Amino acid sequence: MVSWGEAARWNPAVLQEAVGRINAAYNKLVACSDDLRDINTPEGWHGDAAGAAAAEVNQIIDGLEEYAADIAALRRAAGDSGDAITGVQNGVREAEAIASSNHFTIAPDGEIVDNGVPDAPPEQTQLIAEERTRLAEELKDRVVQVLRQATDIDDDLCAVLERIEAGNVIDATGNDNENTSLAAAGNSGAVNGALSVLAPPPVGADPSTNAAWWAALSEAQRKQLIAQHPDWVGNRDGVKAADRSKANLNLLEQQKHSFTEELERLRREGGDSDEIARLEQRVKAIDSITGMMHNPDGSLNPNRQLMSLDLTGDHPKAAIANGDVDTAQHVAVFTPGMNSTVDGNMPGYVNDMQGVRHSAEDMLRRGGDMSNVATVTWIGYEPSTGDDPGSLLGLATGENSALGGDKLAKFDQGINASRPTDPHLTALGHSQGSIVTGISLTHGGTGVDDAVVFGSPGVADHFGIDNTARDLKVPEGHAYNIKADGDHVAQYVPEIWRYGRAPYAMEGMNQLSADAATGPDGGRLAASHGHSEYTRTTPEGVDSTSKHNIAAIVADRPQLAIPAH
């Protein structure tokens, strides 16, 4: 087992330099192929002596073929090991950076040492203690994954060296030496000298574990997994958003091909109508996602990231980002409510969140701040369906909200875990999405700094619970509610406390306006009305007050938000 101190000292340059020298020797050897064929079949020589000579030459050729395979295997193993060690270096750097910036130390044996932090206000003591416990666990995960990668490299390289030493890379005795090629033998050896790519953590692993695994892989190994195993990468919370997007785009193409072939077969054979309808919905969802990820001219939109893709269950699920979640200083995750579908209204939500992003960045620019914003539309659960507002009474059951809250908590955790520095992270929830958001935040440790719910029937999954904003486990004073005039869901459903205390009456919940108002810059802001206008912009290009307020919180500019009357 490799220790942390040993892994931290590993240097890929030694192996990378060796590859050049090994390659030079290999090239000299394979250049002998033509000469070997000439020696093996000397023209006009027959008899016992010729036969004995041919047997000796065959043994030489077989030996040289095996030698070529050995050298090629060594070259491949040294190259793969040197490349993989760059992943170990990256994993060590990221872990050490997180430890240093948070007053932790990683000892040579991998032990996490908490060096403490300066005194904090008493009201923050518990939150800080919980956060430091989470950080210590994340650092442990990172140490484990770095050492798992280092041990995997060490074991694989030793296995190749043992095969070379034992002469077991290839068996050349069965080759046709009349047409021998040392290069072909070398190609076979190179295949046997390849190192494995470290398998991912189990499905359902913590985002910090996934992030640590991904950080410890080299760039070449990541590209290999994205191309060959996109299903391992695309929905794994904790992996970088850009890499998840590449994997999910690959998976999207594979799924489209698979579903289309199966549809054609079922239609041709008169298959089950329900299955045909299900597959048609999947294809429609794929086409919808493809449209959101591409520009009108068909080119890939570089400002979009496909952060999750799940075509199982009753309805397809996906998460699409505007902007770069890996680098933006401010990131918002928006969870829509009932009747939301990937193949229906998701494109409208993504465009709305693009508008919120632009408004937030405009606020920052006007204040001289060039920070970037990214917004994510997350339909990672299966929202309820129905036209009757009364159906809201059953929203917090099963997959609809409780499991959705669990999944959203991991998604949010994954954004922070995938980055060396945490962004300012805002959770946005509308209607049923506010219930899912509330449930997710009660998990704690999500990394969410601000939460805004709008059109909300409540933020809990229990009937009659007397919850407060503190239950959402965001910093005190950083939870917000917006209720528009004429929004019956936000006005009347909370009165029965089906989803906890009414957000508009919740202790510690800041109330923001959705009425017409004058903005901080003197410009006018429009009113929102009803349940579905919170991110509205008028045909004249005027933001609604509620959209302005959402953008202000996303931009971490609460002083620009307009309170409710």
Summarize the structure.
Keywords: Hydrolase. This protein has helices at residues 4-9, 12-30, 33-40, 48-101, 125-166, 182-192, 207-215, 219-228, 230-233, 241-269, 273-293, 346-366, 398-417, 432-441, 488-492, 545-554, and strands at 104-106, 112-114, 304-310, 317-322, 330-335, 373-379, 424-430, 450-454, 479-482, 510-512, 517-518, 524-525.
The tally of helices reads 16
The average pLDDT score comes to: 90
CATH structural class of the largest domain: Alpha Beta
Which CATH architecture of the largest domain?
3-Layer(aba) Sandwich
Strand content: 5-15%
Helix fraction bin: 40-55%
Order of helices and strands: HHHHEEHHHHHHHEEEHEHEHEEHEEEH
Q: Give the overall silhouette.
A: elongated
The helix-and-strand class reads: alpha/beta
Main sheet summary: 8 strands, mixed
Summed up, the domain count is 2
Radius of gyration: 30 Å
The CA-CA distance between the termini, in Å, is 64 Å
Q: Can you walk through the features of this model?
A:
It is a single chain. The chain contains 16 helices and twelve strands. It has helices at 4-9, 12-30, 33-40, 48-101, 125-166, 182-192, 207-215, 219-228, 230-233, 241-269, 273-293, 346-366, 398-417, 432-441, 488-492, 545-554; strands at 104-106, 112-114, 304-310, 317-322, 330-335, 373-379, 424-430, 450-454, 479-482, 510-512, 517-518, 524-525. The strands form three sheets. The chain has an eight-stranded mixed beta sheet, sandwiched between helices. Strands 1-2 form a two-stranded antiparallel sheet. Strands 11-12 form a two-stranded antiparallel ribbon. The longest helix has 54 residues, at 48-101. The chain is elongated and about 110 Å long. The termini are far apart. The mean pLDDT is 90. Keywords: Hydrolase.
